[in-house]
Amino acid sequence: MAVETAIDLPRAGHPSRSAGLVEQTLAVGRRSVVRVFRQRALMIFPMIFPLILFAINGSALSPATRIPGFPTDNYRDFLLAMPFIQGAMFVSITAGVDLARDIESGFLNRLAMTPLRGEAMLLGQLGGALLLGAVQAIVYLLVGVATGVSFASGVGGAVVLLVLSIVISFAFASLGGLLALRFGTGEAVQGIFPLLFVTLFLSSSSLPRNLIKATWFRDIATYNPVSYLIEALRSLVITGWDVQALALGFGFASLLLVISLGLSQSAMRSRLART
Q1: How many domains does the chain have?
Q2: pTM for the full predicted model
Q3: DSSP assignment letter at 6
């Protein structure tokens, strides 16, 4: 059921154009956040699934730590990055389906007839997804610590891991928003989800790239940007402060975010019919 929460737009006459954009974004974002809280299934079930896989794989694949050259003797340390990426992918679908629902119901077109700016409309629509990503990241971190995961980078590394995971979630949410604007239906957005999961399993999620024996698999994992998102998160747990891994992780997440938002802006302009 769609949530038609009222949006209180800022009144005309504000001296600052940028302040107006911020207020408009917050107004739309408030509706998006309220909608997520009212649909608790969107928060609980996508959050639980990665934790179930973390529990199963953390036990079933633990013998992998006996492979010569494996970077840690605790497979959960190695595996902890997975729930964060899986959760971000679920966030992308949630953001895309919610935006597609607004497109199908005509709510986005009604917003287009208000003074609301396109940038505020787009960023505000992703506000709920951003909150969901932050909540998931905190839960995954707490579960990891509770199951014995230790951070080689210390408390500061745990904070950076949270920040990076939220950036990744927002980047994937922006991708979901782009898909919604391009296809216009929730069914089409959901149909893309299996392809996102394929990129996860064709990465260095289960083994370090240097220990993958199949050449074709290792090559795909090397060219797969998801590998570098995982490795950046993982480095904070296992290695410590790996500047190269963190730069690649933040770099690819930021690149996905910028490209998705840029293309979404173009798609938003072509979809909305302002009068």
Answers
A1: 1
A2: 0.86
A3: -
